[in-house]
Amino acid sequence: MRFRPGAKLDSGQVRDRRGGGGGGGGRGVAVGGGVGTILVVIVLAVLGVDVPVGGGGPDVSLENGQQLSASCESGADANQKEDCRIVGVVNSVQAYWSENLDGYREAPTNFFTGSTQTGCGGATSAVGPFYCPADQQIYIDLSFYDDLRSRFGASGGPFAEAYVIAHEYGHHVQHLLGTDQKVGGDREGETSGSVRLELQADCYAGVWAANAVETGFIEDLTDQDIADGLDAAAAVGDDRIQQRSSGRVDPESWTHGSSASRQKWFNTGYRAGDPRRCDTFAAGAL
After folding, report:
1. Are strands 115-118 and 218-220 parallel, antiparallel or unpaired?
2. Do 78 and 9 meet the contact criterion of CB atoms below 8 Å apart?
3. With contact defined as beta carbons under 8 Å apart, do 22 and 59 qualify?
4. Which end of the chain is more exposed for a tag (fewer CB within 10 A), N or C?
5. Mean pLDDT, to the nearest integer, of 43-52?
């Protein structure tokens, strides 16, 4: 994945809280059972839609935000630095949805280290990247990308990182459309509302990928980029994570979907390039 060198980045869409002190972990993520390792915490929250934790206001490091603005100005910067690459992805994803979703409201992405406060309460790096509907913001500790490779066995690569961000913005789109309200208490199981929500966010990520070049920020996506995205989607499938962590697979406890279904729905969005093809809540969709 390469960015257009002359593309102008809007670093104002990303807030850098790293080194800003962070908030406490609150009550953490409601894991609701499992094998009891830290991996399970990540399993249930990674690429997730919501983090049900205690209250608390945001913490923002203005100094770090200013540094990000100064260092991430163009697509050339995005081709050289990971921080700037994520800024470029955020810009591209939001450019797509701004043009294709009536009433789209931009949502900032927050970089943090260790722990932070959100509109959904305190959160730590263990929860993985997540979208908080209460404040309509996305949160990520960039060390997650190392976990994606070391803990989840993904091949990595710039587009694997982009897939994660695009998935979280898929949750923002769902919130704006009210789709997240369809889930209710249907939180676990192979065909649960939670799984349908996650697979739709994967599909939305694929839709963005299909249109990424047209946003003006990205120069090209290669077959290898898409393969890296599909590999990342498979790596965070419930079945693969359960197999790696406990040696057994329990579809009744799934919250995000199998590796195969995550790949299928990302690919559905990518091949169609149309969010209307992402109705995972339709009868017979799963």
Report:
1. unpaired
2. yes
3. yes
4. C
5. 45
Contact indicator for 68, 19 with CB cutoff of 8 Å: no
Position 49: which residue type?
A: V
CA-based nearest residue to 262, from 168, 167, 175: 167
Residue type at position 209: A
Question: Residues 218, 1: contact at Cβ < 8 Å?
Answer: yes
Which residues, in sequence order, are bridge partners of residue 218? 3
pLDDT at position 55 is 39
pLDDT band at 182 (very low <50, low <70, confident <90, very high): confident
Nearest to 49 by CA among 152, 179, 210: 179
Q: DSSP state, 246?
A: H
For residue 80, give the amino acid letter. Answer: Q
Q: Of all residues in the chain, what percent are helix, strand and coil, respectively (each to 5)?
A: 50, 10, 40
Question: What pLDDT score was predicted for residue 52?
Answer: 39
User: pLDDT at position 98, please?
Assistant: 98
> Can you give the pLDDT at residue 152?
85
